[in-house]
Specification:
The chain is of the alpha/beta class. The protein is built from 9 helices and 9 strands.
């Protein structure tokens, strides 16, 4: 197969959709090669394929069938014209409103050059359906990619780090310069891979865990003793003397259980 950059009839990048089309074919190949088959899926969903720079490397793969979801009608028309074999598997819509049960009967992986303005929302949606998604390979703003992959004790460690690391093992794969895109973004980009871990469910109340993590990082300069006051009463514990960035996923589970048990007895 002759891989190609988009032709002269290319789609106009739309600022409100956060579109920056990848044009570096070597990077496109490396992103697709990041799919490891972890979890045994046979379907892959590409989010925001644009003009199909990643898609063309996905389609020849025989270990899975490629589907794409695209909100931009101009991009959908481009894909239908240039990749007619893909047409039955083009979902014209918004991933944030996507119901996997309408299209997939089993697990599927996610791949894509995520629109940077909604990348966090994509991850929160993926978390909601995480048992259907054993693997994610994606490109996003480098700062966000590093944050997601960051271990505890690092200044980059934040809300998404904890919530995603609770359910996925995360690898930072490669950095990508602005010149790899058209139009070039004002920031560096990074590619990460998330593979579902063995945690079927947290030991604690999940909604309270999410609230605990978000509240803790909203005032990350404070000790948790002070930062977590909005959550309610928590029995004294050495972890409360630390700041949010110093806690592992399991530490947050421990604090959530303490808060949960206290609220149950009050």
């Amino acid at each position: 197969m002759n891989y190609k950059k988009p032709d002269d009839s290319k789609v106009r990048a739309k600022k409100h959709l956060g579109q920056h089309f990848l044009k570096d074919l070597n990077i496109a190949q490396r992103i697709v090669d990041g799919l490891s088959g972890h979890g045994g899926y046979d379907r892959v969903l590409e989010i925001g394929p644009g003009m199909g720079v990643l898609t063309q490397f996905l389609l020849p793969k025989t270990s899975f069938i490629t589907h794409v979801i695209e909100i931009d009608t101009e991009s959908v028309a481009y894909l239908e014209k240039h990749y007619p074999e893909l047409s039955p598997r083009i979902i014209a819509g918004d991933f944030l409103k996507f119901n996997p049960g309408d299209y997939f009967t089993d697990k599927f992986a996610i791949i894509g050059n995520f629109p940077y303005n909604i990348s966090s929302q994509i991850f929160f949606r993926a978390l909601e359906i995480r048992d259907r998604i054993p693997e994610i390979v994606c490109m996003l703003q480098k700062e966000v990619a590093q944050r997601i992959a960051s271990p505890p004790g690092n200044k980059d460690y934040g809300i998404l780090s904890v919530l995603l690391q609770a359910f996925y093992d995360i690898d930072y794969l490669v950095s990508v310069p602005p010149g790899a895109f058209d139009p070039p973004p004002k920031v560096q980009s990074g590619v990460i891979r998330l593979r579902r871990n063995a945690v079927a469910a947290l030991e604690c109340d999940e909604k309270l865990f999410f609230r605990m993590v978000k509240t803790a990082f909203n005032q990350r300069r404070k000790t948790l003793r002070n930062a977590l006051k909005p959550v309610g009463e928590i029995p004294d514990h050495p972890l409360l003397n630390k700041r949010a960035e110093q806690l592992s996923v399991q530490d947050f589970v421990t604090l959530t259980l303490l808060a949960q048990n206290t609220q149950a007895t009050n």
